[in-house]
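Schema walk-through. Below, the input block comes first and the output block second. Nothing else is stored per chain. Lengths vary across the set, and this one has 242 residues.
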Amino acid sequence: MENIQHLTLVVLPGILSIVKMYFSFCIALALVATCYAGPATNSLSNVCKSKNGYYSVEGSCDSYIRCNDYVPVHQTCPDGLHYNPDAKYPNYPCGYPSDVLCLGRGSVQPAQPTEECPHQYGYFSSPYAAPDNCGHYRVCIEGRAIDMHCPTGLAFNADSGRCDWPHLVPSCKSGDYLGFSCPAGVNDDDGKIRNYKYPGNCYYFFSCLHGHVRLLSCNEGAAFDPVSGLCVDEVLVNCAQY
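--- output ---
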């Protein structure tokens, strides 16, 4: 059972990671020209310790120095992105805040909001989201919003900018969103996982731990057996009864 949960945690968020890689690639190709590039000054003359590379700007989370043939140029990431001090030249050095933290590194440029987006780039809450419909979110690129939805069973967490378990999203009512609440009176303090049938689909099931419900799926070739509460070979489950 633990292996099934682990697989689900890895696979479902992995779908979101593919989407993020796609938009990061778009940024690298289409937005390099949008970065502000300032002329080199005397104060930057000794910055470049290597021929080509990136260097942080003290007190700033989204600015950096790009060195090209030992020539330093001050640049700023597009609004909503942070400079990644771990980026290796010539890879694009700006990333989403969910991937590049800014704690203790300084400030960011003023926001450049649009009618659809609070920043030019980023992952944000969607106006279509509701406590009982928590999977909606928006990806903003150049101030234009693309409406997205989290993988099945996950909700968008605006605090982290990621899809998460519904019970970890404060604005989400996980029971209403998933259509199931863990039964009352069950001993939630014993640390045991209890699984329940998902109506209409024998490959999904509800899993309860400490009173929190999650929607999970069985591995390929397996189906949920409500009698044992486990995923078993699908030939042993009568899916027609679902």
